[in-house]
Amino acid sequence: MQEAVKSKFEQTILGNLTPDGKLLDLENKNIGPEELRLLCDADEFSSDLASVEQLFLSQNQLCGESIEILSRVKGFTGLVSLYLNNNEIGDDEAKVLANAELLKNLKCLMLEANNIGPKGAEALASSPNFKNMEVLFLDSNPIGPEGARVVASSEQLPSLQALHLDSTGIGDEGIMAIAESPNLTDLKKLYLCSNKMGDAGAIALAKSENLKKLNVLSIWRNEIRDKGGQAIAESQNFMNLERLYMSLNLIERPVRKIIRGSELAKRLTTLVMD
Fold first, then answer.
1. 54, 157, 226, 261: which has the fewest C-beta neighbours closer than 10 Å?
2. How many CB atoms neighbour CB 182 within 10 A?
């Protein structure tokens, strides 16, 4: 029976590996502890795993034991992007991942739509394995303001260029922490949709001296009103901004007109607004 499972899993691996060996797509393939254990011990195709740069393990209901085993996999020596979105990863699993050698060379980690809270966010943000991380997806996890604060205060993310925090419940408090962080000065892309951001958060972003390198800012589906909208339009800190997404807020028509006619809007390549 074990041999049959092993043979089937080998077929799954080789059947979902791109011809150049750089991408392994195991999304929604019923990967669980047994399969991951085989992956952990798979000497026979270790050379195949070493060339993998992108690994997709989304939608496999991964949690608990599965994440423990995944953290011990050593064959992916060239891995730079790991996609674990839409699983069942909580704070305990986030702590395990934070200490996994598998993440040491990662430049992109996708954790969207799991169940990571403030404690899990703290474990990830304080991990010594994230020195090379350039893109971090925490969207649709309940990290809240506390989680945003620990990410903002972390000195373990020196390479971070894109931070995805859509639908994380961070509110104005968490957004202000991001805006005031001296550790995120190299950030180029910031995604803050659906966080109940009001004028306070928008004004903090507009006044931030730390976010001057942003070229993409996404703040749609929030609760920004006229003062916040006008502060964004008048900001002198968004000189590098190229794309601004701010639809579905509470900005009245006259101020939306001011924004469209602003110097900021003239510099943008993309402005999406109601």
1. 261
2. 10
